[in-house]
Amino acid sequence: MNESHALLKFIAFGIMCLAFSAWIVIVIGNISFEDRAAYEAEFADVTGLLVNDAVKVSGVTVGKITGLEVEPGGTALVTFEMDEDVAVPEDSAVIIRWRDVFGLRFLYLEPGDGEPVEPGHRFPLEQTDSPADLGLMLQRITPVMSALDPEQQNQVLEALSEALIGRTDEVQDLIRRGASLTQTIASRDQELRRLLDNAATVVDAYADRESDLRALLDSFAEVSESVAARNDTLEQAIVRIAEGQEELRRMVDANDENIHGSLDELDRITSVLSRNHENLERLVSSSGRGFVSYHRLSRLGQWFQIRAVGFSSDYETINAERGAELPPTDGSGRYPRPAEPSNDSTSSSLRSIFAVQGARR
User: Fold this and answer.
1) Are residues 216 and 252 in the same domain?
2) Which residues, listed in sequence order, are joined to residue 354 by a DSSP beta bridge?
3) Helix residue ranges, H only, 188-300
4) Coil, strand or helix: which one is 118?
5) Do 247 and 200 belong to one domain?
6) Residue at which a domain ends, from 134, 157, 185
7) Per the domain annotation, does 214 fall within a domain?
8) What pLDDT was estimated at residue 40?
9) Is residue 160 assigned to a domain?
């Protein structure tokens, strides 16, 4: 009887050990009995990431890493699988995060708002992000920390502690604002990457123009030396400018009444012009035609071009009209006598039709 009880206890203990071992294998191996879909993601650095590491969404494990490879371009290709019932939007971000302080990591998926992708989809390098290398940072900080004097460190810490005493609310508010700032910066990851890329482009352009920049700095140094050598001249120029300003001020003060009077007169003139702007517009619009007629009348220089047409018995002009040229005169400066009219003509006969171009302006 006792032997049968001992056998039953041993069998129960063995079953419990097997169940516990199976549970450990399932947990460590991240084994799932649900159907899963495979995806791929490109990373610049996958240090600390291992096969079978967890894949999480919103803090829940939904898959595991199934493969790590190196692409021909030098990037790392991570293959992972997730439960089929978990939708993966096309604009999701795939991020490597720290699991603990020992350097273990896991894959974290931040879902976007796009359409779900099909199994086998590859997330490009622009949609992935690798964590900072804390080990490298500590290696770089260690020499700085070792160079600091412990007494100085204690003084700094004591001063910091005294400054923070009684300011718990301010410190908590500062931490909250820092967290908000960190989240904002993290949400602008793509913009920051573009900013850094543009900055790198600008720096490369400056590097290509290094000789030009050196020449510019040398020229600026020469100009500075020239200005420094003429310091006395600059001081004299500044003094003369000040004297000129003083003379101008005295002149304005001496003629203040005249200036105000001129401004008042100008104000009255502008007021009159403003009240009669319609008449002024009509004058300006109609003056063009008058100038055209004047130009046609006086375009031959110092003489006005006119035509004199008259009926006369003693060579005197009766009326005038613009038009023709002056007939030739005789040797005494008189115009020639026209031919005598016939007996059939009327008492008022036409003696001559000629153009007089003799009126000076």
Assistant:
1) no
2) 308
3) 189-208, 210-229, 231-254, 256-275, 277-298
4) coil
5) no
6) 134
7) yes
8) 93
9) no
How many domains does the chain fold into? Answer: 4
Nearest partner of 37 among 77, 73, 69, 85, judged by Cα: 85
The answer to whether 92 touches 129, Cβ cutoff 8 Å, is no
Give residue 96's identity as a one-letter amino acid code.
Answer: I
Question: Are residues 269 and 240 part of one domain?
Answer: yes
| Ramachandran region, residue 231 (left: φ > 0; alpha: ψ -120 to 50; beta: rest) | alpha
Domain region containing 203: 166-224
293-341 pLDDT per residue, tens: 666 666 665 565 555 554 444 444 444 444 444 455 555 555 455 454 4
13/6 Cα distance (integer angstroms): 10
Final residue before a domain boundary, out of 208, 242, 275: 275
Residues 93 and 174 in one domain: no
Q: What is the pLDDT of residues 274-290, one digit of tens each?
A: 888 888 788 777 776 66
Return the closest-CA partner of residue 53 out of 88, 91, 79, 23. 79
Q: Is residue 19 part of a domain?
A: no
- Contact in structure between 315 and 337 (CB atoms under 8 Å): yes
Inside any domain, residue 107: yes
- Count other C-beta atoms under 10 Å from residue 349's C-beta: 13
Provide the pairing of β-strand 105-110 with 93-98: antiparallel
DSSP state of 308: E
In this predicted structure, what is the pLDDT of residue 265?
A: 87
Strand order in the sheet with 128-129: 122-123, 36-43, 76-83, 60-70, 54-57, 105-110, 93-98, 128-129
Q: Are strands 307-310 and 319-321 parallel, antiparallel or unpaired?
A: antiparallel
pLDDT, tens digit (0-9, with 9 covering 90-100), for 52-65: 888 999 888 888 89
Which segments of the chain does DSSP mark as H helices, in order? 2-29, 134-147, 150-164, 168-187, 189-208, 210-229, 231-254, 256-275, 277-298
> Within 13 Å, how many C-alpha atoms sit on residue 335's CB side?
16
* 72 and 97, same domain (yes or no): yes
